[in-house]
Specification:
The protein is of the alpha/beta class and 211 residues long. The protein is 31% helix and 20% strand. The strands form 3 sheets. The chain has a 7-stranded mixed sheet, with helices on both faces. A two-stranded antiparallel sheet has the order 3-4. The chain is globular, with a radius of gyration of 16 Å. The model has no long low-confidence stretch (mean pLDDT 95).
Length: 211
């Protein structure tokens, strides 16, 4: 099973590495980190890099495509060769997925038109610019496309996909194997966050109305 991750500068690392830690454990998984060119892609922040072992010119098909997000998503949207590659790979996949603002890349590639989709809460409304129906849920599956909300939702998305691909037992074995049993100290939903927390985030995100 060929699993292609699109890697680019200024990506959010957990968007890619969270799903990687799950999907690389699928039976017969072959994971490919693919960039516009080969080489290290600097994350956001740039103190960490991820190696793209393949250039987009070297990968023409995959069973699963994973598109992460991050600040670099805007650069990818402005790179026609990368959007064309996303379309090309999507034509061959069993599943096409995104994490956080990676869904905006799928949207820019024309893959979300008429579909339900999600993304980070601060960018959710922008999905409508691509003809998608924005859905405020952690995971949204529409046909073969699965979109995940902000950053940490990529792990949940990957486990959901593992269940689809390999069944409940394999998916749960992966979850238990990586000991994914989150017990965070706070409620992470922006719509329920207290006002001081939202005030800290307002400079970077469009803060949603509180529930």
């Amino acid at each position: 099973m060929r699993i292609a991750f699109l890697i680019f500068d200024d990506l959010t690392v957990l968007d890619a590495i969270g799903p990687f830690e799950v999907l690389c454990r699928l039976p017969k998984a072959e994971v490919m980190m693919v960039g516009e060119t080969r080489g290290i892609k600097r994350a956001d922040p740039s103190s960490l890099g991820i190696a793209a072992d393949y250039a987009i010119s070297e990968v023409s098909s995959a069973d699963i495509l994973v598109v992460p997000g991050g600040r670099g998503q805007q650069q990818v949207q402005g790179r026609p060769p990368m959007l064309e590659w996303v379309r090309q790979i999507d034509a061959t996949t069993q599943w096409t997925t995104s994490v956080c603002t990676g869904s905006l890349i799928l949207g820019a590639a024309g893959l979300l038109k008429g579909r339900r989709a999600t993304t980070h809460w601060g960018r959710l409304a922008k999905l409508g610019d691509f003809g998608a129906e924005p859905i405020s849920e952690r995971i949204v599956e529409d046909g073969k496309i699965i979109t995940a909300a902000g950053v940490s939702a990529g792990i949940d998305m990957a486990l959901h996909l593992a269940r689809r691909v390999a069944g409940d037992t394999v998916a749960q074995a992966i979850q238990v194997g990586i000991e994914y049993d989150p017990q965070p100290p706070f409620d992470g939903c922006a719509r329920r966050a207290p006002a001081p927390v939202l005030e800290m985030l307002a400079a970077r995100y469009t803060v949603p109305a509180r529930a």
